[in-house]
Amino acid sequence: MKGSFRAITQVCFALLLALSLSLVPAVSALATELPSISPTTGEYDLDDPTEVMTAITWGVATLIDAIIDDDGYRLQQDEDYAVYPRNLIILPTYLEDRLTDIGDELELSISFDVGDAEFTITAIGTQPSISHPTRGYDLEDRDDVTTIITWGAANKVESITENGSPLRMRDDYEVGTIAAGKAALTILNTYLADELEDIGDSVELTIEFDRGDPVTFEITATGTDASISPQTREYKLDEPAEVRTTITWGSATKVDSIVDGDAYELLPDEYTRTDIDDNRSTLTIKNSYLARKLNDIGDSVVLTIDFDVGNDVTFTITADGTQPRL
Predict the structure, then answer these.
(1) Within its chain, how far is the Cα of 192 from the centroid?
(2) Which end of the chain is more exposed for a tag (fewer CB within 10 A), N or C?
């Protein structure tokens, strides 16, 4: 009797062992059949906006219960996404409102009836640029300054500022289409004339687009300094008279002041300017001033002539005459 019981026990143990071993592959198979997507990341191209797709491996799942974004919004099937036998498609009608700039990122949590997955979508695109980050503004031929915008992923200029102060569309600048993907940005002379008054003056403009990084556009005033010829003259004590030199104006248009070495500023009736042609004038220092300053042979004055544009020049006048004899 005891032998029979032992035999029955051994048979039951063997059956239980076989059953347990047969269940292990079934459990492992179930674990490997959870749903997944590939790839788990996607890119939304702002240059050419279209849907973003990933492939679904369903495993034991049969449907998508919900897709929720990182703002907590539940996407609507057929409005925001579409499901095909092997693919999940996130539609551009949804993406265009969520991914508006280069680098924007969106995380979607996908819940299946069994299991879940994560899908990250990043906005990519070409940064906007300008053809000339620096330009010159010629003070001798004051005119608008233009550079060419290549839009890339951008569509418009949002703002242009200089040290935080905004320029005004149409009053200070204009944007005009010249070809597909390109536009002419023109900074108007009405703005530049007030900002760039002297050679070397500059403005750095920050251009903000609706998409992409801002760019800087630096405009520097260029021109030709005024000069005089000759730079030295003699004042004849034997026959006191006016002293003249010739101004070549370059970018300048007028004499702002003439100051001597004693910090005395000549009065308007102590010098005159007479035009020779469009770019030259005769500067005359009158005897009424010179007779007071130059009393002896070898006396001199150094006059600093300040122009409205460009660097100052100096004009040296020395007294000359005949030495007395015993």
Answers:
(1) 18
(2) C
Q: Is 125 exposed, middle or buried (0-12, 13-18, 19+ CB in 10 A)?
A: buried
How far does Cα 125 stand from its chain's mean position? 17
Peptide bond before 230: cis, by omega within 30 degrees of 0?
yes
CA atoms within 13 A on the CB side of 290: 25
**306 CB-near residues (< 8 Å, 6+ apart):** 255, 256, 257, 258, 259, 312
CA distance 300 to 316: 7
pLDDT exceeds 60 at position 2: no
pLDDT 10s digits, 100-159: 999 999 999 999 999 999 999 999 999 999 999 999 999 999 999 999 999 999 999 999
**Which residue in this structure is represented by tokens 């002896």?**
296
* Contact (CB, 8 A) for 311 and 225: yes
Closest CA to 313 of 264, 267, 246: 246
Half-sphere exposure of 125 (CA within 13 A, CB side): 28
- What confidence category does residue 326 fall into, taking pLDDT thresholds of 50, 70 and 90? low
Pairwise CA distance, residues 75 & 110, whole Å: 10
Q: What is the Cα–Cα distance from 184 to 148, expressed in whole angstroms? A: 5
Q: Say how far apart CA 75 and CA 323 lie, in whole Å.
A: 105
Strands (E), 6-140: 36-38, 41-45, 52-57, 64-69, 81-83, 87-90, 105-112, 116-124, 129-130, 134-138
Confidence of residue 321 (pLDDT cuts 50, 70, 90): confident
How is residue 293 written in tokens?
């300053």
